[in-house]
Amino acid sequence: MKKMIALVLALIQLTVFSACGGKTQTESKKETPDPGVTISDSAGVSENTGSSIQSETVSEKEDNISSANNAPSSQRPQNVSDAETGSEPDEDNTAEAKEHISDRMRRGINISGPLEAAGEVNYSSWIFDISYYETIADAGFDHVRIPVNFAHHIGEAPEYYIDTEFLRAVDLSVNNALDAGLIAVIDFHGWAGRLASDFEGNKECFYKIWEQLAERYQSYPEELMFELINEPNKPISNGQLNELQLEAVRRIRRTNPTRTIALATNENNGTWNLWNTQVPPNDENLIISIHNYNTMNFTHQGANWLAGNPYSEKVHMSDEIKKSVESALEQCRIYEERTGRNVWISEWGVYLGIADQNDVAEYDSFFSSACKEKNLSYSYWEFNAGYGAYDMNTGQWKDFIINNLH
């Protein structure tokens, strides 16, 4: 009997054990992670609950990086948008790529004259009076181009030191512009002729001048820009100009790694040379400066300082002139579209010697409206001289010009 009882008890225990084993297998299957999720090596199950699982995708674990969706905005790849990643933007994470300083340039004016002259600095000049910069800003301009001829104010080789007093004068103009809320562009005027006469003999001085300027202004805000050279021309070749500008950029970048620099096109900043101008692809802070005086017989009528006085006859506005302007500006628009690099029309205007005011008004309106339509920035030539939009005698803007700069 005892053996029979023992046998029965053994069978009962075997049955209970089998039932418990089946239950354990079922619970384990319910806690298996979803397909495509790998359990972390560091902590698979919470010690307290036995049910919490840390997981990450295989690719995230292997690369040890966060996905674009989860990364903070400062760590996201710059070429990945919220739309591409599928994330919902929030109030703290909606900023797009940082606006380039040249994107803020729409309507500027040249303040030419005083800093192009030789001799001692005349501190009574209007260019050192901040009220004129404020007048410019109040009229809706957002930047000034400051032509400066350093050739009259440099020392001997090999250092070619720029005269300290002249640099102080340049400082005053730049600071006036910045304090008035304007973007300021230092434009190196007057050196193209030296390079044309002796390129190899004058390029090192050119580099030394820009090295000094770069060091002097390295702590200035991004609202100060550099324009390397004004109106390079033949016999300077496209190859020589590319060599000159690329080397100048390289030296400036030692102290100003992100300063916006404007490169010139050859043949007097000609639009037709846009595609011949070499630009380093890895430098986003370079723009192209072109000049547009289409057509010369209209915009330079009465310009008797030109050799042979070729534009001595009065010319009226015409459809042919409009077509010439439109064609040139369209080239700029296409260049911007295809390269993603800004084109800045740093000079344009009409000499007022013999031009009819109504013609000037029509030209200015057509030109500036076309720039606005094509989203091109410009700097009108000029503030108060032969092409000037401002009358220093009356202290007023010339209505037929200012009212047509859109």
Notes on the protein architecture:
By secondary structure, this protein is of the alpha/beta class. The chain folds into 2 domains: 65-97, no CATH class; 107-402, TIM Barrel. It has 13 helices and 12 strands. It has helices spanning 2-30, 58-63, 82-85, 130-138, 164-179, 192-197, 199-216, 238-252, 266-269, 296-299, 319-339, 357-374, 399-402, and strands spanning 38-39, 55-56, 107-110, 143-148, 183-188, 224-227, 261-264, 286-291, 343-347, 377-380, 390-391, 396-397. The strands form 3 sheets. An 8-stranded parallel barrel has the order 3-4-5-6-7-8-9-10. A hairpin with a 4-residue loop joins β11 (390-391) and β12. α7 packs parallel to α8. The longest helix has 29 residues, at 2-30. Residues 1-95 have low confidence and may be disordered.
